[in-house]
Amino acid sequence: MYKNLAATLVAACFLSPVFSQPVPGRTASASAAPPVKAGFVYVSPITEAGWTRQHDEGRKAVEAALGSQVKTTFVENVAEGADAERVIRDLAATGHQIIFTPSFGYMEPTLKVAQDFPQVKFESITGYKTAPNLATANARYYEGRYLAGIAAGRMSKTGVAGFVAGFPIPEVLQGINAFTLGMRSVNPQATVKVVWLNVWFDPPKERDAAMALFNQDVDVIAFHTGSTAVMAAAQERGKMAVAYHSDMRRTGPDAQIVAVTHQWGAYYTERVRAVQNGTWKSASLWGGVREGMIRVGDFGPRVPAAVQQEVLAAQKAIGAGRLLPFRAGKAPVRDNVGQERIAAGQALSDAQILQMNWLVEGVVGKLAH
Fold first, then answer.
1. pLDDT tens, 238-264?
2. Domains of the chain with CATH codes
3. Which of 119, 202, 318, 339 ranks highest by number of CB atoms within 10 Å?
């Protein structure tokens, strides 16, 4: 399924990393025009934090930026597959001019509906297939994962981290590998134990996986799932955790050491404004720290100032292009079965990152199927 992902994304016309501001002189005419109807489809319920919460915050940012010039609609807890196609089709049929579908499993349903509604604009978030009226966007989550790994490596007493993961798609593998490389940049002996769930959102299952890892010398945990369950488990057990998608200090006031957050508001606003102005074009964006789509911060109270400063300095280096998570130093980077994956002094290309199908040395686990 993923073999053409890299070629598709790299060949696409990438959007400018600088989101535009309102065009002078258009405010009055835009205000007089009917509001743009923008639809959002969510794969889980809107909880207090997590993947869906961040996208809904993005939707609210659109409303705050455009006011009466936009009318948004959202449908939450929509399963990937036939249910998603039905909901996306309903939004297209009821006058929505742009529809955002932020889940990888929405890609095919979005493409199918887009073919039937050529006048509607669609945005597949985390997908990679485009069409004249279908754009894609994703974030370089792995950049934040590397930074979180630095924090985890400094904070861990056992040198053993856990990682609760959804599915073994390239995006998740990038995150696991970057997190491990970040940890091992400050503790070369650190290891990361992975548990695969084969689901994005299942709080009881997420909690059980975290608890199992805590019973295996894990004292700090990361996750690529959709709820706050792993953070809550860490709080309960007196362990440490890296928040993902959102700041989760409300759930884990003592457990959270740092958060990797995704910022969608500027992108969503830019794309809705493009529909409003008649300038929307299909494209692909893969944005990270530099573009403001990935941010690491929200440190917990137990993290020393020196560790915070180290992580923030590394974040600046990534934003400036001086630090590449998938660049080898004097020694090559190998996978966890001993094969060389990044030659000494070399860095992976975007195409290689996008088709990642291996686990780096230091990861304890295998690819789930």
1. 999 999 988 999 999 999 999 999 999
2. 5-140+263-287 (3.40.50.2300), 141-261+295-364 (3.40.50.2300)
3. 318
